[in-house]
Structures are given as C-alpha cells and as structure tokens.
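ugh finaly. both done.
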Amino acid sequence: EMTFGDYVIVIGNNSAGKTTLLQALDFLRFACTSTIEDYLECHSFRPNDLFSKFQSKKTIRFRVEFVDDESIINWEIAFTGNNKDNFTLNSEKIYSDDSVYLESSSRNTFVLNENAGEKKDFSGISFRSSVMYSLNDKLISNCTAAKKIKNFFENSEFLDLISPYDMRKANREVSDGIGQKGANLS
C-alpha cells in the first residue's frame, strides 16, 4: 500500500521491489495513455520479460484504489500475453462501492455516461490497451471515474534507476523531464 503525493521517492534494500513497483506503475500509465507495445519499446523489454519463467499462464493483473476527498475509485485491469509477442486486454473494471463506470471482458465492454445514466456498448472490439486509451475525449469526460484515473497517469512520471550510460548520451534537445533512466539530463 502506497500513498502518493506530488513527489514521491521510493527507498529500500536491494531486491526489495523498488524498480518493479515503478515499472508496474509505468505499465499502468502506458496502458491508459498509450499502448503496451509502446511500454515494451520504451523499456527495451520483450513481452516474455514481464513474466516469470515459472508462470504457465501469461496474465498480468492489477488492482489500484484511487482515494480523493469525494470518493474511492477502484480500477482492475488484466492483460494476457500470447505467443505472437503481444498483449490483449483480458478484463477491465472501474467501480466504486455503489456504481460500475466501465466494465470490459472478453465478450462485452460497457462505459457508463454518469450524466445521462446510459451505457455505451463497445462489445465485439478487441482492445490491446486499456479501454480508457481508446475512448475519445467526449466519452471519457462523461465518465468522471475514468477521467480521474487517466488524468492521474497523464500527469505522472515514473522514473527507473538513473543509468550512467543513458545519462552520458549526447542530447541537445529541449525536454520537459529527465527522461527514462536520465537520458535527457545532458
């Protein structure tokens, strides 16, 4: 369990899971703002790098709880890797104690328009990232819970360990951040 503020530093012993935590959060960021393929490329990972050699089923599951002054929003998402080196959304659900705002399974996908009390049906579509990534701005603005989650990840940056190799690369471009592993520090 972690509570995030505007700026968080994770400290711990070697092999305690610091980098794994940051990579998991970055995975979720890419899931709702980009694609899993972009995540893999950014980190120079192959799909099999995300699984233990002891796993027979290649599924990645997350459950994240977002707490603010107004509500508690839960986001559950699962991806399945396949033999073609890509991921498919297995299931996704955004809910609170009293409402389900978005629900996707292998057969059905529904998004609730909170203002109108109606559900949009996206069944039959195969998603390779979060349903939130695929929603246009109008649809996501009608689902406050999904909008809060997406805004959190759009405004977050999860930095792995700084790499001396990447820091030394010549980079003369103006950048908004230090980049993955410090690649934009120069």
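ok and the 2nd:
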Amino acid sequence: MAINLCVLFGGVSPEYEVSLRSAESILNHLNHNTYNIYPVGITKQGKWIYYAGTDWSRLPANTWEEYPENCPAAISPSRGQGLLLWREAGVETVTLDCVFPVLHGENGEDGSIQGLMQVAGIPCVGSGVEASASSMDKTVTKLLVGETGIRQANWYLARRESIEHNLEKL
C-alpha cells in the first residue's frame, strides 16, 4: 500500500526560489510506486496551492502556480483531516501519512510548520519544533552549543542599539 506523502514547498521567505529548486530535486527522486505524492506549494504571498502537475521543472521555473488543474489547499490542524483540497465538486480530504517540508528560512525551518504537523498529528520529515526553532535562531544555537562544551568560534551578539551607541568600540 502506498504512503500518502505531502511535499510542501515555496513559502513566505526570502529563500522561496531555493525551496522550489530543492523540491524539484526531491520530487524527481521519490519512488512513485512507494508514495502517493501530494505536492503543495505555498506562494510568496502565503497562498497554499495543490500542484496537480507532474512536470517538476515547472517549480524552479516558477510556472507551477499557473497549472490549470491546481486547486487551493491547506493542512487542517484538526487531527484526522489531513490535506484539504478545494476542488470544483467540493472539498476533498486526503489522509496524510507524512509531510515532507521543503521550506527554507522563516516560516519553514523555524518550527512553525513542524508545530502545525504536531497539532494535526501528522508525522513530519526532519527536526521537531524545538530543534527547528532553536537552530534557526543562531544566538540560541550558540548558547546551547556553548552549554554542551562543544568548542566553537568566539562570537558576539550585536544588537542595533549597541551598534548605534558603541560602533567604535565594536
């Protein structure tokens, strides 16, 4: 029996284009006999769209949004609902076995998507909420690494106020 896998890509992030290229690579290498693949793109404006095509080269070309059979989509936070697809005939519900977030930067690697999956009860590829959030914030990462005794380069947190008032000293 095939696994229902939602591949999330795009996102409201400066790294949108990187995500599209990463998703193309992943989608080109997934075994289509093992997985029922549900590619869902998030536009730069935050709109979730189910990409109904199979030409993955449309992702980095940024023409995936224009595919005629696309439809609005969302992952429901209600456990058991999974992926919601707004088709012309009504809302289709797809039970998901796993979500593969291919989202870079803010709103993707920062724990937000992982939190949604945790609330929805859907397994998610990659780190969990805490690991994602703490590794996205480099100051938190440095503090955690320092507490474990792992050697690291010296660092200093420069805040706007300290730069404005102590630029020469910095």
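summary for the 2nd one i guess: Residues 16-29 form the longest helix (14 residues).
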